[in-house]
Amino acid sequence: MTETPTRGPRVGLFATCLMNVFRPNVGFSAVKLLEDAGCTVEVPAAQTCCGQPGYNSGDYDAARALARQVIETFEHYDYIVGPSGSCMATIRHDYPVLFQDDPQWLPRAQALSVKSWELLSFLADVLDATQSDAHYDGTATYHDSCSGLRGLGIKGQPRALLGEVDGLKLKEMEDSEVCCGFGGTFCVKYPEISEKMVDDKVRNILATGADTVVGGDLGCLMNIAGRLKRINAPVKVFHTAEVLAGLADGPGLAGAVKGSD
Amino acid sequence: MNARVNAREAILNSVRSALKRGPLDDTQRAALDARIPQHTRPAQDEDLVARFMRKFESRAGTVERVTGFDAVPAAVEAYRLGKGLPARAAVGAALKDLPWPADFEMNHGAAGIAEILSVSPAIAGIAETGSLMLAAGPGSPTTHNFVPDDHVVVLEASRIVGHFEEAWTILRARAEGMPRATNIISGPSRTADVEQTIQLGAHGPRRVHVILVG
Amino acid sequence: MEIRSKEFKERSVFAIHDASLQQALGKARGGFVGKRAQQAAELPEFEQLREEAKNTKNEILANLDHYLERYEQAVVAAGGHVHWARDAEEARNIILDICKRVDAKTITKGKSMVSEEIGLNEALIEHGMEVVETDLGEYIIQLAHEPPSHIIAPAVHKTKDQVSDLFEAAHGGPRKTEVADLVNEARQVLRDKYFRADVGITGGNFLVAETGSSIIVTNEGNGDLTQTLAKVHIVTSGIERVVPTLDDATLFLRLLARSATGQETETYTTISTGPRHADDLDGPQEYHVVLVDNGRSKMLGGRFRDMLRCIRCGACMNHCPVYGAVGGHAYGWVYPGPMGSVLTPLIKGLDAAYDLPNACTLNGRCASVCPVKIPLPDLLRELRHMQHQQDITPVMQKRALNLWRFAATRPKLYHALEQVAARVLSGISRKGRIRRLPLASAWTDSRDLPAPAGRTFLELWQGKRGQK
Ligand code: SF4
């Protein structure tokens, strides 16, 4: 695909750390969905991390350093969009708080905040792109990632979009809104508690009989997929974007065939 | 005594320094005292008596309706016989002039440990949650509300108000001021402290029966 | 009560492997959550009330000194006494003095978290007094010599079997196994105590400045028997519990039962105003209120003022997946769960409870149900920030953060490292996953690590689109 004839919004794609390393397919899915909806997508090379690991560890200075970098890199786009409720909630809600006492950076943080969107809510709430020509054979259950759900109000949008996918059946799990136990560094600082939590999540997933789990945050999905694999449960795990873009044709997270890029 | 006075001042000063100000001046205080809270009251679109009964019964309370105060003793008798209880009860003195049967033994004083039935007057019913409001006083000892196994409460239908706020208005209007204890009672005593299983009659009455008058 | 929050890690692991505890927690979890959700759904005004409750509490806190003084005046006018306690010790001494003065032998107690906070029972018992907890849950844990594990359901960690054992040992059998029989047995044992009690101690859910009243909310009626039958009634309460008027108390009452136990109202709401009147036939001869500060006025000054809105409903712990996994005792002090993880470090010191603010995924479910909208995750993060500032954060974590910051602020370096990671992890993976990874065993002990495909997104993107 080259230049879109009627220039839609210019979107800077926020390539989250986990996606960049572990699941490039999510990035390509995001680009496809955005371009299909008429956006011009760019992926600025100067980006790294949103700064959340520092922020949530109480290192506000480090978080601010990263936030400034993100602001500088993305502020000239019409929108900054990323396939993660967690990173995008940080940009949307936490940046303005981080700079609340900084008259120079506060307006820039606020300006970026209001044009920052998690991918699915951007598609549904901003672009009104609710059609999908994707096909997926299977029964999926959707896990509500906490930051997306409570920070950004993402609940109906992914379900509505997934409902458009031909061949896909959605089955709700019990406690879909309960945390999976990932929590960033939490899962390695308190591994036993995290394991208990992901076990509860996995039990609810298995109880639905679904063959696929989808969700909007790779942290949660890696946690869930890792646990499912460890107990040899034959359930595939995909990011919502992969399914919507029709790029969920492989074995899913923790099941990738080597060199399948 | 000195240490205590100091603690009071120390805490108030600590509060003020946390609020980054000194004591409020008289005008500010007067403004706070004049404040009239206007909180949202949950909407109701039901007849007050019907709602009171529905709500009270939803929590295992029982209600029966009689036409006038004269019918109360017979209703109490019927309740008592239905439960197989002896002909005695702790009865709030406020109700002592009703036409009780001659052989009905009444204790108008505080309820002792052996008391198993009581009859109390309610000063209001609250339709919002289906609750009774009882005021401690010589005509209605508080022990009557909690010691016996069976508690019969006499409530005039006209005393049922919609919301709690209206019940507080009744309290404020009392010539004798606030009762020592104001008991809002919404059914029999209960507990869920053993494996979240609801069990009635934890410490207070096992049954609360309302005789609604009028 | 001695603080054991430093042992959080050990105790949480222990809790996860405690089969009875897990059984008890499993039973409780669904009930609280489902019932609260139903109550919230049945009251169209619920969300609006939460907003009003938050704003009203904020107004009260901004004028707390005034309302405390007004409250004190009203208590005195009603014939009661107000005592002020700066800290736990002062509070204990005030209560001890009253009990000694009336030569108290038996003291009954309704549930009061403040009395746990100030370590009251131990002090009274040390002075030879018999202290009887009368809330069934509190009674159970008193028999077990344990602290409460939940602020509204103190014995939520106990199974029925364990209660049967405790009652058999304490009451001299025969062993009861039905809930009804257990409750009845406690009822009989405790009745006698109420009638013998010299002093009855309760908490106070709300203190009403307008009337000088204290309000307690219970289901069992134990608080009422406690305060009505004893000669002296002592109320222990935090200074933040004052509300201007009965109408203000009502706002919070509408939220409290629904949020706590998922009931429209609890069975008893009791408004106590002073001691018995001259013509009253029952009720206590003395009425005392002990207003406890214990760190609260300090919280008022900073970022933690929000925490003083707490009405102790327990919804945050009922909805906390960490609490649900480990129960209340792991937290190591009086207040568990999200609210406890904020309060404990603030009252007992940051370094006495390092783990509490950290053992949280910041998933936000607590804040989404808190009836007074306390931003609990933000406060926990703020505590992490304070730990970081005060060098309480472990050195290794600080180093890791510094390294991360160094790399992440240098995009070229960061991308190079990401590329190395993607290749190495891919290289050591089998069938799309990594089963064991040195230095990352905290992950791989219980989970596989999904393997990267080998090249990073940015790398592939550059190859495909060649953008700058
Ligand atoms: S913090 Fe909120 S949810 Fe938790 S106990 Fe307090 S009022 Fe209830």
From TrEMBL, chain A:
Pfam family, one: CCG
InterPro entries listed in its UniProt record: Cys_rich_dom
Record domain Cysteine-rich: where: 11-92, 141-224
Protein name: (Fe-S)-binding protein
Organism (species): Aromatoleum diolicum
Lineage, highest ranks first: Bacteria, Pseudomonadati, Pseudomonadota, Betaproteobacteria, Rhodocyclales
TrEMBL record, chain B:
A Pfam family per the record: LUD_dom
Domain LUD: 124-213
Protein name, UniProt field: Lactate utilization protein C
Organism: Aromatoleum diolicum
UniProtKB/TrEMBL annotation, chain C:
Name under which the protein is recorded: Iron-sulfur cluster-binding protein
Lineage: Bacteria, Pseudomonadati, Pseudomonadota, Betaproteobacteria, Rhodocyclales
Keyword Phosphoprotein recorded: no
Gene3D superfamilies documented for this protein: Alpha-helical ferredoxin (1.10.1060.10), NagB/RpiA/CoA transferase-like (3.40.50.10420)
UniProt keyword annotation of Flavoprotein present: no
Keyword list, A-Z: 4Fe-4S, Electron transport, Iron, Iron-sulfur, Metal-binding, Repeat, Transport
NCBIfam families: LutB/LldF family L-lactate oxidation iron-sulfur protein
Boundaries of every 4Fe-4S ferredoxin-type domain copy: 301-331
Record organism: Aromatoleum diolicum
